[in-house]
Amino acid sequence: MEYEIKHSGKFKYVEEGQGEPLVLLHGLFGALSNFKDLVDHFKATHRVIIPLLPLYDLTLLETSVSGLSRYVQKFMEQQKLTDVHLLGNSLGGHIGLVYTLKHPELIKSVTLTGSSGLFENGMGETYPKRGDYNYVQKKTELTFYDPKVATKELVDEVFSIVNNRIKALKIIALARSAIRHNLGDELQQITAPVCLIWGKNDTITPPMVAEEFHKLLPTSELHWIDKCGHAPMMEVPVEFNEILMGFLNKHKKA
Fold it and tell me: For the chain, what is the domain count?
């Protein structure tokens, strides 16, 4: 299905369903299609909201994990969201953690899948073969356990991003910001329940990253999905949604 992109002031977002708010934060190369199965499943029980993060529209100074977290803060304030179930994939998880550390009173639960914030192997800090389609295709395929999940449409999208000079510079700036902004010393401050859903075959944020998050987040639970890479909600959506539903049911309003 195609989602309607809503506009409110400077914000663009998708909103489907009713119930407790479930806010989804996408990663560096995240598209709305990444969350299709998740939205289709949870719109029956939750108010599912996806703010479109301005990865390429902020000033270079604001193009950082902190800058995007401030954008999320303004979006949440504008939408008057409280008691939020926050879910982030990859860079989106990192942004969600920074937001949660600054506004713990607004967060009911946090779900992380393939999150940065401790360590990640991204597309790299530079693009030495920017014009090489096969190179970009192989890098995109590394996101998944099954390379077939990296459809031509997805590879074309990544290829167009990295071949746009301004967008490539913003991607590099965000990748460097994510590496610099390590949250290891702060995670123990998070008291909201945290669900870690991780692909056992994630090569970008490998299993040891999930184990470190689990160790540092005192209220976390860790779930593994076998034969799955960096984006479980895309690659193994049925199992991912079952785990997430079980977690959210434990932490819904009485």
Answer: 1
